[in-house]
Amino acid sequence: MATAPSDYVFQDEFTADSTYEVGEAVSLWKDAWRRLTSNYFALFGLAVIVLLLLVAIVSQFWTPYPTWKQGIGPTYGGPSAAHPFGLDQVGRDILSRLMGGAAIALAVGLGTALLSSVIGIALGLLAGFYRGWVDTMISLLINVWYGIPDLLVVMLFVVIINSRELKWIIVAISITAWLNMARLVRGQTLALREREFVEAARSIGTRDVGLLTRHILPNALGPIIVQATYLIPAAILFEAFLSFLGLGAPPPEPSWGAMCAEGYKSLQLAAHVTLVPAFALAITLIALNAFGDGLRDALDPRMRR
Amino acid sequence: MTLETSPEVESRVVDKQLALVSVEDVTKHFPIGAGLLGGGSAVRAVDGVSFEVRAGETLGLVGESGCGKSTLGRVIAQLHPATSGKVIFQGQDLVPMRGEKLRRMRQELQMIFQDPYASLNPRMTVGEIIGEPLKNFGLARGKERSNRVHEVMRTCGLNPNFLNRYPHEFSGGQRQRIGIARALVLNPTFIVADEPISALDVSIQAQIVNLMEDLQNRFKLTYLFIAHDLSVVRHLSDRVAVMYLGKIMEIADSHSIYENPLHPYTKALLSSIPIPDPDLEAKRQPILLQGEIPSPVNPPSGCRFHTRCPIAQFPICSEQVPPLESKVDGHLAACHFAGQL
């Protein structure tokens, strides 16, 4: 039998290597941030998102012209020094409306992503972790829900609530948008619950809540974040679609989707009325995807150096 | 107060005649192919196993891959529910325990896992991993908790300066020390070690074995040490159990199992260990077993080993299950012709 030294000296290969420096302990999030900022594409995405946020905030206090005011200049007026993005079919300033639209887009995108993620993550975790009849019920709900057209759900919801306020639009889109998140989280949970570290956590007396929040959810965070960043542009586009049908934010709210819809009739005459908000949508979508991908890579601990 | 001088450790009994854990006729069947109409079969991973682990000893559990030894370890540690049978620990049957009662019991009963890469949560720091058991049982908070974590890290040969590091920053041996520290921090009585060294480099294996021996002496621990290799177990174990296809073939104290194996399967396993002496090694005549290990879905009738046994006689070996019984003072073997090979 080995003798019992009073204290172990750090004697194995790890410390025997004298070139190993202790260094400062970097937290996972700090490290992720460092990796994110060395990814230029993700930084571009982040820059656009920050710009959008600033514009959205500024638009709540100041725009060059009121977003609703008609006849500021010539109808279908092209870009000029006074109106950099031109004027629309009733002579409203497109730059001002674009700024106001940024606030609507971000509110719908972020609000929907947040709300539908909460629903999807909660149901996905429960289904994947408890399996059995809980999973059967939740999976049945998801599959049935998939079979019902999103548009029908949203239309019914808007009619029943009898309000087109932005917060209800967000709720309406969220109750159709959580399905993919729930499926993703369920799949991740089913895989993670069988991992040895989850078994180990059980063996040290971790309760179910702890297993879900400390062991399963953090290890599924990468795919969840990526999924959530896809939800944002999808929600923005869905809101545009609703506006086109007259179910979105009511006029004269400067929703980008509504602006596109209003301009498409005069596409040959004054393309800028449609192209400017469409371009804003496209840039926003690319930026969100770039940032999401960067975030996914940055949050993967195996990428740590 | 250090862990070593805690009243729990002081009062812990080391009596290698006294059963700490009694496993009574435990089975674990995994159903397969059970459709809507039923009629599925089952993998009989553990099929009627009884033995005891005595206070303060190390019981080695060996067998080939797929013989059910890891499943048995998990059933004893209550990570898989047993299909039937009893696991009696400190006078209580663990098998019917559920929920909070079972969770409380886990304080006394810990596990060390085989794969030091898979068994640590990659999103938690070493300090969080080792501190989690304390958190789960509300045993120590704040400064006191971090002191306990520091102490256990030092005890397990880890530098407490690495508290805020993540598992992937460590080598395999270091990670296994983290796994051991996590099991030790609750000050358990009994530890199931599921092949704790088979995923490590040979040079590191001896360090982990020495650490485990040292911890056993200091904290009066009882081990069930699972391995697929008799030579590793020899060094550590007071007694050894040999498992084949879900059943125990032989149990004896390690001296007599190595010097005088009674079961032909044990003998075959022992004869396959290379001898570190060229002259003796040249003369070594391994007993080569014929064929593959049969499927645990449909195990052979009678003695499970009869399809590969060099001394099987028919029809007795294919018809009658040999009981695990005492052959020579306390040396148990399940063979109709024990000691005849």
Automatic annotation (TrEMBL), chain A:
Membrane-topology annotation of the record: Multi-pass membrane protein
Entry keyword set: Cell membrane, Membrane, Transmembrane, Transmembrane helix, Transport
Domain of life according to the entry: Bacteria
BP GO terms, sorted: transmembrane transport
InterPro entries tied to this protein: BP-dependent_transpt_permease, MetI-like, MetI-like_sf, OppC_N
Membrane-spanning residues: 40-62, 102-128, 140-160, 166-185, 224-249, 269-295
Alphabetical list of Pfam families matching this protein: BPD_transp_1, OppC_N
Segments forming domain ABC transmembrane type-1: 102-292
Subcellular location: Cell membrane
GO CC annotation terms, alphabetical: plasma membrane
Keyword Isomerase: no
Record-stated family: Belongs to the binding-protein-dependent transport system permease family.
Protein name: ABC transporter permease
Automatic annotation (TrEMBL), chain B:
Transport keyword on record: yes
Entry keyword set: ATP-binding, Nucleotide-binding, Transport
Biological source species: Candidatus Dormiibacter inghamiae
Family: Belongs to the ABC transporter superfamily.
GO BP term (any one): transmembrane transport
Residue span(s) of domain ABC transporter: 21-270
Top-rank lineage group of the source organism: Bacteria
Keyword ATP-binding attached: yes
InterPro entries xrefs: AAA+_ATPase, ABC_transp_ATP-bind, ABC_transporter-like_ATP-bd, ABC_transporter-like_CS, Oligopep_ABC_C, P-loop_NTPase
GO molecular function: ATP binding; ATP hydrolysis activity
NCBIfam families: oligo_HPY (TIGR01727), PRK11308.1 (NF008453)
Alphabetized PROSITE patterns for the sequence: ABC_TRANSPORTER_1, ABC_TRANSPORTER_2
SUPFAM superfamilies: P-loop containing nucleoside triphosphate hydrolases
Protein name in the entry: Dipeptide ABC transporter ATP-binding protein
